[in-house]
Amino acid sequence: MEEFIQECSECKVSEHLKSKLCPVCMTQKLVRGKWKIVIIFLLKDGALRFSQIKKSIPKVTQAYLSSQLKEMENTGLIIRRSYNQVPPKVEYYLTDQGKDFIKVIDSMHLWGVDYIDANLKN
Question: What pTM was estimated for this model as a whole?
Fold first, then answer.
């Protein structure tokens, strides 16, 4: 971990703060992108095909969704499983690390509910 902290280019803060912020910056880097958190949320109940994910996020372009899925696969948050059949079948599902991130999303949800209750409701 210490080696990673020294090399982290995301933390543009003092060395004292860097040791505390670096894990947060890594998390932010892994889920950066408009739809990654939504994709993780969609996959929490099990594997989905590309078309199912696309239908759930109608405003995302096919190219952007594909790039987000590839990034998430490369960082170990999801796994892409391809089946050798006609027509071709590809499914995406969460790795154990991806499943662990559901706890973060749940915390974000609770915080968001509290924020809405405190600031946005009439």
Answer: 0.81
- pLDDT digits (tens), the chain, 122 positions: 455 445 566 666 666 666 666 778 888 888 998 999 999 999 999 999 999 999 999 999 999 999 999 999 999 999 999 999 888 899 999 999 999 999 999 999 999 999 999 998 76
**Residue 64 CB-half CA count within 13 A:** 12
Tell which residue, 88, 53, 46, has the closest CA to residue 69.
Answer: 53
Could you tell me how many residues make up the chain?
A: 122
**40 neighbors 101 (Cβ within 8 angstroms):** yes
Longest pairwise C-alpha distance within the chain: 56
DSSP state, 44?
A: T
d(CA 83, CA 100): 26
| d(C-alpha 27, C-alpha 99), whole Å | 14
| 58 CB neighbour count, 10 Å cutoff | 6
Would you state the structure tokens that stand for residue 8, as one six-digit string? 């982290």
